[in-house]
Amino acid sequence: MPKMKTKKSAAKRYSLTGSGKVKHKKMNLRHILTKRSPKRKRQLRATGILSEADARKIRKQMLPYG
């Protein structure tokens, strides 16, 4: 059985914590920021944690060695 390839696009977007949770950067912080409140922009800077249902798919299919 050959090695499984990591989906490189997923590797750039997601990373794993020590306990196996999947971290990601939150969306909506790229452009047209004038309409967003400072509180909203500050909260979007924090990393998000994927739900367990989505995280299983990412870990199994896209980050097999992650």
What does this 3D model show about the protein?
With 66 residues, the protein is an alpha+beta fold. 36% of the residues lie in helices and 15% in strands. It has a three-stranded antiparallel sheet. The chain is elongated. The relative contact order is 0.28. The model has no long low-confidence stretch (mean pLDDT 96).
Q: Helix fraction?
A: 25-40%
Spell the H/E element sequence.
HEEHEH
| Order of strands across the main sheet | 1-2-3
The fraction of residues assigned to DSSP E strands is 15-25%
Compute the gyration radius: what is it?
15 Å
Could you give the count of β-strands? 3
Given the C-alpha coordinates, what overall shape results?
A: elongated
Strand count, sense and barrel status of the largest sheet are: 3 strands, antiparallel
Number of helices: 3
Question: What is the overall pLDDT average?
Answer: 96
Question: Nutshell version of this structure?
Answer:
The protein is α+β, with helices and mostly antiparallel strands. 36% of the residues lie in helices and 15% in strands.
List keywords for this structure.
single chain; 66 residues; alpha+beta; three-stranded antiparallel β-sheet
Q: How are the SSEs ordered, and which strands pair?
A:
Elements: H1 8-13, E1 14-16, E2 22-25, H2 38-44, E3 47-49, H3 52-62
Antiparallel strand pairs: 1-2, 2-3
